[in-house]
TrEMBL record:
It comes from Nocardia terrae. GO terms for molecular function: holo-[acyl-carrier-protein] synthase activity; magnesium ion binding. This is 4'-phosphopantetheinyl transferase superfamily protein. Mg(2+) binds at D105, A106, E107. InterPro entries: 4-PPantetheinyl_Trfase_dom (IPR008278), 4-PPantetheinyl_Trfase_dom_sf (IPR037143), 4PPT_N (IPR041354), Enbac_synth_compD-like (IPR003542), P-Pant_transferase (IPR053566).
Length: 224
């Protein structure tokens, strides 16, 4: 599913069923030695996907480290993003010579828990949600949250800075819509300065794609 919202040149891999014999890379075990079982499965599964994506790019299967804020550390020359939610783990990777950064996120296609929307959204975003016609079957509040997560994941590797939910205003288009599913694009307008560490132009916005299918919401931003 993830490949449907990624451009050519980005390698993607996903797990919808967790193999019981799946083991971590020997170089990663120390990172999860004290983790609970769910955390281990998410960590191992997402990094397994990352190595599958590395193979698609012609790169060796290496350990995927962890940075100071928990972010994945990919091999030199590779950019990418990992995600996981109940029943799903995925990775999207590309060569740094072609892409500056990648951010993906997956969420269950369900409404946000009570009280969460106000803490992760801006007034204009909530106003838009209130105008969406009822009966679509799409949980667009969770889609908004998913797009915010992808925005942060593509932002952080380029800036090394935190980005709050209130620091990006996201708008959506709907290209296709079906019962319990759909797809489209979104635009993340950054409301804070975006100086970068790679010598490129400061960040002002991102454009991404979204997909709702098979009980999942997927969002992806690829910054070229």
């Amino acid at each position: 599913m993830l490949g449907r919202i990624l451009p050519n040149g980005v390698a993607a891999a996903e797990l919808t069923a967790y193999p019981e014999d799946l083991k971590p890379h020997p170089g990663e075990e120390h990172l999860i030695a004290r983790s609970v079982e769910k955390r281990r499965r998410d960590f191992i599964g997402a990094r397994y996907c990352a190595r599958q994506a590395l193979a698609q790019l012609g790169e060796p299967a290496v350990a995927i480290g962890k940075g100071g804020t928990g972010e994945p550390v990919f091999p030199r020359g590779i950019v990418g993003s990992l995600t996981h939610c109940d029943g799903y783990r995925a990775a999207a990777l590309g060569h740094k010579l072609r892409f500056r950064s990648i951010g993906i996120d997956a969420e269950p296609h369900d409404r946000l828990p009570d009280g969460v929307l106000d803490s992760v959204s801006l007034p204009p975003e909530r106003e838009w949600l209130s105008t969406v016609r009822p009966g679509t079957g799409l949980h667009l509040d969770r889609l908004l949250f998913c797009a915010k997560e992808a925005t942060y994941k593509v932002w952080f590797p380029l800036t090394g800075k935190w980005l709050g939910f209130e620091d990006a205003h996201i708008t959506f288009t709907v290209d296709e819509e079906s019962a319990g599913g759909g797809s489209g694009t979104f635009h993340s307008d950054l409301l804070v300065p975006g100086p970068v560490t790679d010598g490129g132009a400061p960040l002002t916005s991102f454009d991404g794609r979204w997909l709702i299918s098979d009980g999942l919401i997927l969002t992806a931003i690829v910054e070229g």
